[in-house]
């Protein structure tokens, strides 16, 4: 049977703030290696046999970012499904399974979060091959990781008797039960008994079996997802599920919606299994796990950017914009971005989510986005701002354009730094080259285009009584943002 990758890309990665943010989460970042995490997730399975192009489920706000990252690695998703809101992994998978079965006969679903690191690709492929064999025999398959320390940030899977005999293959066990994230004492017990694996969040099963079991155990999820798919619309490269129906869907995970309920069945032929994934896996759930998953220097440090270290050990230092000097640090995480500096001891790294929750409560912009904000046409970056002005650097991709728009509360000055700009201002059209500029009064319809073959870079100076991004009235847009 064909292997259908299902990539779940709905997470926000709050514990990797300030690099990971709501509008640019960790799966879209290059944290380990040259590719982003979602790109690596797909590339590591491309060489397997009988693999279909992936189905990706992501938040609607990330659609252009995900599509661009797929274009960069020459991958055309079979379907890019947009969630209007996050409802956990079981609804996301149900949307994908319904979409797959609507287009083809039954197949094996390989369900993978988009934000994990796997270093040993050969061992990973062996586990997937074994999982494929078991899934074809109708076994729902989970993938667990042998714990290396008493981790309280992961869920666990209790294993039963082994069901594999070939020593060359990875080991598969009957799946006994799922365990919630434990306290440290319980995690230590799990480690010592050697009967528990970390729950990786990866699964395999036939698409038809998932739909059958979600119908049996959590029918409200299937009902809501079916309505959301039936009332959804294809929008170019994206499939938009209907928001009202999907918002009524219960929020539940794959393991608790279906998998753990299968362990209660008394059936000698149909039972869930778990494969021990020994492939250098990490979910990179917090800064210390990124440190552990990366290649470090002789002192155990991971340094990226313009960094100077002295008497520093087992620390992570990231610098995006400025030089950072660290002296006498141990087990410390320092992350510098254009608008935030985070300093945290590794023992308190899980508490980063508390800061993010506080920022969200106070409606701080630093929770949502970086100063560099990506758009389908390119990106803009805030350089300076005050009470009645803002300065941005704008980069427009070749043959791309911003929407035809108007502002009620601000005027704009555009200065071309490099490339060629085609400027529409009401009924006027002008071509501007390097060092030329134009002025857009408030209330005037306007559009910025790049008709050239090289990126267009401009400096935009905004002035007015209100400078928020919601002061945009769009009349036409190539990317469907007038809806």
From TrEMBL:
**Nucleotidyl transferase domain spans which residues?**
5-299
Q: Which UniProt keywords apply?
A: GTP-binding, Isomerase, Nucleotide-binding, Nucleotidyltransferase, Transferase
Q: Does the keyword Endoplasmic reticulum apply?
A: no
Query: Gene3D superfamilies in the record, alphabetically?
Result: Jelly Rolls (2.60.120.10), Spore Coat Polysaccharide Biosynthesis Protein SpsA, Chain A (3.90.550.10)
Q: Which GO terms describe its molecular function?
A: GTP binding; isomerase activity; mannose-1-phosphate guanylyltransferase (GTP) activity
Major enzyme class = transferase
Q: Which domain of life is it from?
A: Bacteria
Q: Which biological pathway?
A: Nucleotide-sugar biosynthesis; GDP-alpha-D-mannose biosynthesis; GDP-alpha-D-mannose from alpha-D-mannose 1-phosphate (GTP route): step 1/1
Limits of the Mannose-6-phosphate isomerase type II C-terminal domain = 363-477
Q: List, alphabetically, the InterPro entries matched.
A: GMPP_N (IPR049577), Man1P_GuaTrfase/Man6P_Isoase (IPR006375), Man6P_isomerase-2_C (IPR001538), ManC/GMP-like_b-helix (IPR054566), Mannose-6P_isomerase_type2 (IPR051161), NTP_transferase_dom (IPR005835), Nucleotide-diphossugar_trans (IPR029044), RmlC-like_jellyroll (IPR014710)
Name its GO BP terms in alphabetical order.
GDP-mannose biosynthetic process; polysaccharide biosynthetic process
Q: Which family does it belong to?
A: Belongs to the mannose-6-phosphate isomerase type 2 family.
The name under which this protein is listed is: mannose-1-phosphate guanylyltransferase
